Task: structure prediction
Amino acid sequence: MVDSRNKQSTDPVLRAVASCLLRYARPRQAVVVGFSGGLDSTVLLHAVHALAKGMELELSALHVNHGLSANADSWAASCAHFCRELGLLLTVRRIDVPLDSGEGIEAAARRVRHKLLADHPADWILLAHHADDQAETVLHNLLRGAGVRGAAAMQEARGRILRPLLGVARDALLAYVRSCKLVWIEDESNADHRYTRNFLRHRVLPLVASRFPRAGEQLAAASARFSEADSLLDDLATLDLRGSPPEFPLPLKLFRELPAARARNLLRAMLTWHCAQAPDERRLNEFVRQLQTAAPDRHPRLDLARYALWCERGRLWYKSLA
Result:
């Protein structure tokens, strides 16, 4: 393997990873890379390994075995071999993906995987999403009818999660693995166009790029502007709490004294802060209308698969069902 430290000043991957780590991580902190063995995470793990010693970081890797492919165990073995070559500790966790959750295999696997990563004790959790992933996510969310928050897509930093490659195109990752002579795993499901993201990646975005060559770059740039707007909406929601802590139950009068648009924004923000996805716009609009207009003897309620909201004793209550 090529010593990537010699290329740090010129290689876009190493520049991006180093810049991100310098912004957030401190010496002697522990960082863990979510390592699938695919192209993206192989590049990220190799790049962080090249930088970790000089930055005094404790680096390890976590591989999540979803058990969804006949090749899953061999992928875990390949990841273990790669980490041994680098002298890194690899933790392998096997998970069961619920197939009847109603959210689809992709979303269910992502949710369970992120829950496992969120429970890891490291100071920082590094994920390998890159600029092309960001463009796909923006387009996917917009086509699903998402608002500003969904269009903001992924952030470089959210809580303990860092995405150092979010501004790096996939072509740069391919150049990195070729330069460093790295081998990665190709998940056969990546070619299955029945999965929405694969359809967007292989069919839709190339077609769009044939007319708009900078489509991926522009979508990623738009996500940054949406993210800024989303942050401002969070600030507005905080102001609309009027000193109340961002916790349920909330006084109903907070919603009743706001214009409808700001009441909806407050509810969306509260759900996001509680790691819950807001309902679709039709149900959200109707529920907020009921919050603002229901007579004292009425008790609006919203029951969803993963949580419930209801009114009782002049307050809005929330319960997670996950």
User: Anything to note?
Assistant: The chain is about 50% helix and 15% strand. The domain at 248-320 is CATH 1.20.59 (Chorismate Mutase Domain, subunit A). The two ends are 44 Å apart (CA to CA).
